[in-house]
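Q: What does the predicted 3D structure of Flagellar secretion chaperone FliS look like?
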Amino acid sequence: MYPSRGNADAYKSAAIHSGVELPPQRKLALLLSGAIDRIRLAETQIQNGQISEKLTTINTVLTILEALRASLDHDGGGEIADRLSSIYTTAEARLVSANAQNDLEGLRAVVRLLTPIEQAFRQLATPSASEPPTEPPSTPTSRHA
């Protein structure tokens, strides 16, 4: 019922080989943003009668949600991890149902469910102006007499 892990493995491989390490909150925001974008694409695909393309798109979203759920640290994350797991599971179930029925409103409901989480992770990943920079700026060492 769930798609293969091919997309998650491709993401993991790209992250490893890119040499760029993103903060975990940024990674989560990007994954959720990608899922939301793909759900919106699936809406368009339904409207255009592109059913096989929609299936591929929804499977990608399910893979992302499965990876997000599997990455939760229930021991360290406590109630927050449990709540996110429940939200991801609900989103998966709604996606499967919306997929089977070509239900645009069902897809929109999943977008409404995931958007606040994506926004929260995006805010967590953005340093506030009151936080000190991670590295102090370099100062010139010129000497004028």
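A (community wiki): The structure tokens above were generated from the sequence. The domain at 6-125 is CATH 1.20.120.340 (Four Helix Bundle (Hemerythrin (Met), subunit A)). Residues 1-8, 136-145 have pLDDT under 50 and may be disordered.
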